[in-house]
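Researcher: Next entry in the queue.
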Amino acid sequence: MQSFLAAKAVCDAVGWDYNVFSWVDRTYRLNIEWLAGYRHPRNAPPPECETKLLNLYAQPRRICEAAAALPNWNPPLITAWSYHMTWKRTLMTDLRTKLTEQHVFQAAQDA
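Model: Structure for this entry, 111 residues:
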């Protein structure tokens, strides 16, 4: 506790705000934990597939819609690749609500 008080005193002295981060929304945390399961490079799409997916996700869509747009691709791979790309933040979705098949994904602005 002393270290928190000392840090607050230093921040106060230089005019900074000081807050102690103490919790994360449960749904957000569970979504991050789920996506973390896809962070390993084995879940990364090959570069040419990532490019196609980013082009496809330029318009917001669900993963099942992406799979339908790529009928010659393996849907479970599209799912794994999409989650990996979300972990890397090249795809974005609302993580404040439980991830479901209804979630809409979109390419990040800087992807």
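Model: Residues 70 and 78 are 9 Å apart (CA to CA).
Researcher: Noted, moving on.
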